[in-house]
């Protein structure tokens, strides 16, 4: 039997909202950051992301200043609370049941997101994923830096990172199911064997109609 993989985008696919934006808002609400420019930058980022014009490295270089000088262990504690209080209530029930359906068939679950990996991994673990891929960030003196480590999981970078990962697995010619909401994921949509659109943005819906990809609306 051919190996199979079920791959899910995270933000606005498995959860309602963007985890990176929600994280910045969490840090603001907890008064961990006090400069409103970071919240405003996230709003601008989402507009650029939605139009496909986001410069991810420039955005992260600014945004990750919020954690400047804060130890990874402290960030980890905040993340636990963030996932419990903010993210879990936003997980789509249909997302959970779809993940569970693949798991019941013994198909590995991968969450791959253009959010930084320390957020993605926390959420993916709670969702029962086997593998989580996000944008890896270099560490310096026990703290997160503002520098990307390796290929960012954004646009065609998702395909590159997945291909890298597959090259180190005992998997050959895996059959890939992929779920996403965003036209930024078109490279992965075209790479997958079966693509499913969840709450698709306008550009993705157009591509979905052209490629006859199934379309779903998931709600809380």
UniProtKB/TrEMBL annotation:
Domain of life per record: Bacteria
Keywords: Hydrolase, Magnesium, Metal-binding
Metal-binding keyword on record: yes
MF term (GO), any: metal ion binding
Pfam families assigned: HAD
Entry annotated with the keyword Transmembrane: no
PANTHER family the UniProt entry points to: PHOSPHATASE RV3661-RELATED (PTHR43344:SF13), PHOSPHOSERINE PHOSPHATASE (PTHR43344)
Full protein name: HAD hydrolase, family IB
Annotated source species: Providencia rustigianii DSM 4541
């Amino acid at each position: 039997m051919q190996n199979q993989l079920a791959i899910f985008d995270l933000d606005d696919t498995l959860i309602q909202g963007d985890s990176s934006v929600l994280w910045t808002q969490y840090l603001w609400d907890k008064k961990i950051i006090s400069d409103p420019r970071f919240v405003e930058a996230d709003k601008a980022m989402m507009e650029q992301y939605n139009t496909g014009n986001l410069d991810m490295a420039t955005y992260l270089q600014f945004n990750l200043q919020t954690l400047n000088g804060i130890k990874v262990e402290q960030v980890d504690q905040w993340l636990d609370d963030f996932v419990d209080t903010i993210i879990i209530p936003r997980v789509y029930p249909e997302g959970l049941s779809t993940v569970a359906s693949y798991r019941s068939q013994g198909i590995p679950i991968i969450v791959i997101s253009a959010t930084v990996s320390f957020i993605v991994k926390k959420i993916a673990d709670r969702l029962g994923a086997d593998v989580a891929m996000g944008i890896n960030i270099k560490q310096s003196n026990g703290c997160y830096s503002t520098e990307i480590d390796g290929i960012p999981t954004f646009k065609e970078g998702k395909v590159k990172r997945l291909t890298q990962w597959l090259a180190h697995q005992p998997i050959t010619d895996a059959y890939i199911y992929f779920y996403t909401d965003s036209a930024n994921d078109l490279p992965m949509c075209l790479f997958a064997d079966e693509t499913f659109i969840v709450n698709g943005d306008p550009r993705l819906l157009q591509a979905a109609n052209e490629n006859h990809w199934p379309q779903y609306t998931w709600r809380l």
